[in-house]
Structures are given as structure tokens and as C-alpha cells.
Design goal:
With 280 residues, the protein is α+β, with helices and mostly antiparallel strands. The chain has two domains: 161 residues, Up-down Bundle (Four Helix Bundle (Hemerythrin (Met), subunit A)), CATH 1.20.120.450; 90 residues, SCP2 sterol-binding domain (Nonspecific Lipid-transfer Protein, Chain A), CATH 3.30.1050.10. It is built from ten helices and six strands; from the N terminus they run βαααααααββββααβα. Strands 1-4-3-2-5-6 form a six-stranded mixed β-sheet. The longest helix has 23 residues. The radius of gyration is 19 Å and the shape is globular.
Amino acid sequence: MSLTVLPRTDTRPLFRPVSSALVTLLNELPTAGWEIATVGSWTVRDVVAHLIDTTLRRLSFHRDGMPPPPPAQPIRSPRDFVHFINTLNAEWVVAARRLSPRVLADLFARASSEAADWFEELPLDAPALFSVSWAGESTSQGWFDVGREFTELWHHQQQIRMAVGAPPLDDPRYLRAVIEIALRGLRHAYRDVEAATGEAIALDVTGPSGGRWTLRRDEGRWTVLEGDTPDARTRVRMSDDTTWKLLFNALGRDDAQRVIQIEGDQAIAVPLLRARSVIV
């Protein structure tokens, strides 16, 4: 299998079916189900509130052209930015605890439907609203910005499904798109790793949404390519389910060691195991 440049991932038509599936799940969820803890410190109701917040912000800033309010404190470093985003998210989640499950479900249904309308109308090369910071970009292409938004919708829904014991979404296209978007952050994860030109790390992802990718050192920078490298310095194997859990903070260290196989140079795989496709 030859190596090729990663093609753009078009997630625009995926928002509506994935959002609709979450609306169906929420409408069937008993009241007690909303208080179940998910990965991290949030409950199901908190995750739904967060999705409403980010969706309404997207519509306000992107569709309606409203400039976002400036941060209360200047952002002078990546740490300041993470603190700003975490504070922004937490403020909404706390306020939304005053709302009933029915109100939250109705708000998400309305907001996500309008967001799907908006994304479906966007040209694939529309300018990005925000850069994808976890990929180390100060400016991003529009499809990547929209794709990042889709990964948020998908992985938060999957967190809810795991928490309440609901089956995952069964269309492999959705997780495949999430993986394709998330793997683009590996270049940033390896930004301080030196290697000879041509050195490569092969990533084999099994499962219906899987595939083969290569992280290769080319002319002083790392590049993520689609395809396999038989003579890779290191080969990492994991399932599609493990891949999203790793990149979206849903896999503990002990579990990672148990389900991820590494052949070759173990040390150079460490940044991959630490990579995250979320703001942390």
C-alpha cells in the first residue's frame, strides 16, 4: 500500500444523523440516567449541557457573525488559553444544572438541527472560524475546523452511551471520520522529537473504522500519511475503539498498556501514547 497525503475529511453530512441519534437516546433516557457519571467529572446532563453550549456558540459566532466576548484576562500562553476554555465550559455547565432533562433535550434538538443546516450549506473550503489548537495550528482550513467540531459531537455522545450502557453508533463512517481528523494532531505531538529523514512510525488501526497510517520524518518535520510503511522503525497496533479512547482522554494508562501493541523502538512511540486531540 503506497503512502499518500491525507485527503480532506468532509464531516458536513454527518452532523445531522449523529445529532439525531443523540436526541433519540436522550428522549428515551430515564431521569436517573441524566445523573450518571461519565468519563471525567461530568454527569450525562453536564455533557449534554456542554454540547448545547458549544453548538450555540458555533451558531452565534460562525453563522451569525457575532464576535465572541474577549476573555476577562489576557491570554499570553497556551496554559492561559486552556484555563480560559475550561472556565468558559464550566460556567455554562454549572448554570445548566438549573434546567430539567426535558429542557436540555429540547435545547440540544433545536440547536443541533440548526447547526446541521449550517454545516451542510458551508463550502468545503470555507474559512475556519477557529484554528485547531491541539494540532498546533495558528490558522486552520475550514473543513478541519468543522471536522474538529464533529469529533466533539461524536466523542461526547459516545461518552454518554458508555455511561448509560447504550450501544455505540453502528455506522463505521462516523468513527472513521473522527479518527481521520484526530490523527492530524500527531504532527504537533511529535514537534520536539528529532529523527533522521525517512524515519517512520506505522499505525495499524483494526476494526470497521480502522485503516493504516504512517507518521514520517520529512525534511525536518513530521508528516501524517495514509498507508503502510513495511520498514517502519516502530509499529503501533490498536483497535478503532482504543484509538478514539486514547486520543480523547477516555483510556487509562493501565488499559492502554494492555490493549495497545508496540513493536520496535518503544521510546519513539511515547509521544503517540500521550497525544490528545482535545484541549488539555
